[in-house]
Design goal:
Layout (H helix, E strand, L loop, with lengths): L9 E5 L2 E11 L5 E12 L6 H16 L6 E2 L3 H11 L6 H19 L9 H12 L4 H20 L28 H10 L4 H11 L3 H5 L6 E2 L4 E3 L3 E3 L2 E3 L9 E3 L2 H11 L21 H15 L8 H13 L4 H8 L4 H7 L5 H15 L15
Helix pairs in contact: 2-3, 3-5, 6-7, 7-9, 7-11, 12-13
């Protein structure tokens, strides 16, 4: 390898885009160091009207190479790095995250970007990937897939590979599209469901409706988490596809107050509860946690069909809880704590389905406060001198 010297690089204009050319040292898979020539886009002619401005941009890039502490970076294709990432990083995630991230990798990321070297997956290729995704998946899925890609590239950068992380400010994401109506049970529907359901399903539905618990949190409850003496329910773990795992985030681990009606449901259910090896509150015949999909398909949907309610999942109880909580006068901060969201905007923006009547009443109340007498056509308008 030739002796490394201070570089100034060179700038060329191709079309309306400035490019910077320079040399960089990379560590190949076999450990040998190779010097390669790079050409990276610096910006458009509109952004940098003169060559000198483009050269200043290139100087910022060359600071890393010209630094005294500079060391050659490692290179690999995304396919090669993904195998290492799956072993060292992905295995540390929760089963649900491993499943979704694995799907992102196998269905989208690796088929499109797998053959590229990490140092080639810059903003341009990332944008092409986003455009490809926009034609095949929803806006939310695009964000989730980009999150997995971002995690991989961040890890690669931390491990010394030459690559550029995902910066959404540099990407043009697809439009959000038309938002679908989120399923949310009404108060009457919840009452009717609880009235005709039987345990253990009734207690599951009651925990979702009266406390706003997520499906996994309900199915991961243990008997020791229920403190009827102090009327609190401790959320410490969850369940996914019959396997126990940690909660969605640290904010989810909390103690919630048990209201009196729910205390009655708990006491009645515990009279017939049978011990199991895991100490689960709800345990199937195989001594495992229930799967939420089967609870919905075999026990919730038949009730909804009988009541002529549109089919929905357990999360519709959580949406109902948030809406009724806010509609009953609870502050956004209280609702946030009850639902254990890290950001109150999630509570207000997604989970609050305020009905038209309530919305209308709120606006009328504000208007009557500002204009107590209401409009009066006979009043003589005030003239300003």
């Amino acid at each position: 390898m030739a002796r490394r010297r201070h570089q100034c690089g060179c700038v060329i204009l191709k079309g309306q885009v400035w490019y910077g050319k320079y040399r960089d040292d990379v560590v190949e898979q076999d450990g040998t160091v190779t010097r390669v020539q790079r050409r990276t886009p610096l910006g458009t002619k509109q952004e940098y009207p003169t060559k000198r401005l483009a050269e200043r941009k290139l100087e910022q890039i060359l600071c890393r190479i010209n630094a005294v502490e500079y060391r050659p970076g490692r290179v690999a294709t995304l396919n090669e790095f993904a195998e290492r990432w799956k072993v060292e990083i992905l295995t540390k995630y929760k089963p649900s995250t491993k499943c979704s991230a694995g799907s992102h990798l196998n269905s989208h990321i690796l088929p499109y970007l797998g053959k590229l070297r990490l140092d080639a997956i810059g903003a341009e290729n990332q944008q092409a990937f986003v455009t490809h995704l926009a034609d095949n998946v929803s806006y939310k899925s695009v964000l989730n897939i980009l999150s997995t890609l971002s995690s991989m590239l961040t890890t690669a950068k931390n491990w010394g590979y030459i690559c550029e992380g995902v910066d959404q400010h540099k990407l043009v994401l697809p439009g959000r599209g038309i938002r679908k109506d989120v399923a949310c049970f009404t108060a009457d529907q919840v009452r009717n469901i609880l009235q005709i359901s039987e345990d253990p399903w009734r207690l599951m539905f009651a925990c979702a409706a009266l406390l706003g618990l997520r499906a996994g949190e309900i199915l991961g409850l243990r008997v020791e988490d229920v403190d009827l003496q102090n009327r609190t329910l401790n959320i410490k773990q969850g369940a996914w596809r019959g396997k126990l795992q940690s909660t969605k985030n640290r904010a989810s681990e909390n103690a919630l107050p048990i209201p009196l009606p729910l205390e009655g449901f708990f006491r009645e259910y515990l009279k017939t509860w049978k011990p199991n090896p895991l100490g689960l509150l709800f345990c199937n015949r195989n001594d495992r946690a229930y799967t939420s999909q089967k609870v919905v398909e075999y026990h919730l949907w038949p009730l909804l069909d009988a009541l002529k309610i549109k089919r929905a999942g357990l999360h519709a109880f959580r949406h109902a809880h948030a809406t009724l909580l806010l509609d009953g006068g609870a502050s956004p901060k209280v609702a946030q704590r009850q639902l254990r969201h890290s950001d109150a905007r999630v509570t207000l923006g997604i989970y609050a389905h305020l009905v038209e009547g309530t919305h209308h009443e709120a606006v009328e109340k504000l208007a009557s406060f500002l204009v107590p007498s209401g409009p009066n056509e006979e009043e003589v308008p005030l003239k300003i001198q």
